[in-house]
Amino acid sequence: MVSNAIAALVAFGLLWLSFGIYSSGQAVWAALVLSLGALSLYVYVSAKTLAWRYLFPGVMAMLVFVAFPLVYTIQIGFTNYSANNLLSEERARAYLLEQADVNENRAYGFSVHPDGDAVRVLLTPQGDSASGERYLSPTIVLAKASTAPVAMQAVAGNPVLGAAFTLRQTIEQRGALMTLRLSLPDHSTLIYAGLREFAVFEPLWQALPGGALKRLADGVVYQPNRDTGYFEDAKGDRLQPGFKVGVGLANYARLFGDADMRGPFVSIFIWTVVFAGLTVLFSTAIGMTLAVVLNWEALKYRTLYRTLLFLPYAVPGFISILVFKGLFNQNFGEINAILDAVFGVKPAWFADPTLAKAMILIVNTWLGYPYIMVLCTGLIKSIPADLYEASAIAGAKPLTNFWRITAPLIVKPLTPLLISAFAFNFNNFVLISLLTDGRPDYLNTKLPAGTTDILVSYTYRIAFTDAGANFGLAAAISTVIFFLVAILSLVNLKLSQSNDNQRKGGH
């Protein structure tokens, strides 16, 4: 009975939370919370799902943090979602209908007068209404002020009131004054319009049947264009903000069909693959070499060397990147100072695309080799010493031992880790963002793109920086990146499996 009561209480709380999220206009999130909550409740209440209670947290975490963001990103890629098209059509229309302008011909100066624990507001005509009547409010408790209309009464002469609030006191009560709606005898409503006046706010737009909007100032009608996501007039002029609509494959067509975008995208993709591949290659070569050297029993101070060589991995990456950014500075960096003193040259590391790419590879190799070195050190320790003893008896040299014994035995367990390192560097946003920010840029492109950008940094620039926050296009690129990484990873795994099968067949 107690468990049933708790389950019922949890179910009620889940329904209340889902309804609250749905009421705020987030139908997708409400459906997600409701479905996952109901599934969780079923798994942990039902006796039939006892075995799933141990697996469910991991499965649920995968659905929430992996599957749902992926599906949501793919869905955004089929829309025009951007900084100019954030809202739904209904919310965009409501936003425009809420726009109003002050009617200066119907503006009243005001003063606030204390009346016990409350106040009274006195309206004084100004402008074209300077010769009109004055109006006095009933007592108002500002601390409990609401948006309900306050009926104003016309007054003649000079009513007896307390000393008016000073400007400072008026400023202190500004928040409460902004909530007031003052209703005149002719049923017009005045709203707070500044520290010195209340005024009539007249709407700028009128809603028409079919969802159209008419501008009251000149009568121009704007129809909702559900292909472009904007309210447009007969001339094609658009209103801001726009609204989100589905565009089908337009983002993908733009990505692959537009020559001005296809060129930078292909170049960035090639550089991304080259960058990730060369980083893994260089890091593996240096890390494996150091691991083999440091495994030499006759080498003194091996522990000290390992510690010093591991330091680049121990220092937070963003710190090392910023340090290297200073070292490679063309005018004041230590690297150019040494090159200038020895060879008389000062390379433009950040301005020349080739040098910038070389700099990125140098820095990333520096950051990545300690990881490979530690892995290879552990793998080398697992190789039986008998193999090296037999090799020594046969008269093999160290280089032969490496190629015939060490490398073949550590490559197999190392391969999955190298694939993961490749995938990590394929999306190594931090390095590019902190070191070069993708620059130097390509010239004459529709969207900003840098010669050192990788796909993830290119996507970030499109979504959040230079390109006007085009989330739909960025989501399409992100989807392409996901499938590219997945395909490359599968190819690498298949190749590694093929090599393993060949080795087994050879034996």
Keywords, separated by commas or semicolons:
single chain; 507 residues; alpha+beta; Methane Monooxygenase Hydroxylase, Chain G, domain 1; Periplasmic binding protein-like II; MetI-like fold; eight-stranded mixed sheet; four-stranded antiparallel sheet; 17 helices
Provide a short characterization of the protein structure.
The chain has helices at residues 2-23, 27-45, 56-76, 89-97, 167-172, 174-178, 250-257, 259-294, 302-314, 317-327, 334-343, 353-381, 385-393, 398-426, 429-435, 455-464, 471-506, and strands at residues 100-115, 118-125, 134-136, 149-151, 153-155, 181-183, 189-192, 197-203, 205-207, 213-215, 221-225, 230-232. By secondary structure, the protein is an alpha+beta fold.
Mean pLDDT: 86
Q: What is the name of the CATH architecture of the largest domain?
A: Orthogonal Bundle
The shape, in one word, is: elongated
CA-based gyration radius: 35 Å
The tally of domains stands at 3
CATH superfamily heading of the largest domain: MetI-like
- How much of the polypeptide forms β-strand, as a percent range? 5-15%
**What structural class results from the helix and strand content?**
alpha+beta
**What is the fold named in CATH at topology level of the largest domain?**
MetI-like fold
Kindly provide the name of the CATH class of the largest domain. Mainly Alpha
The biggest sheet amounts to: 8 strands, mixed
Q: Helix proportion of residues, in percent?
A: 55-70%
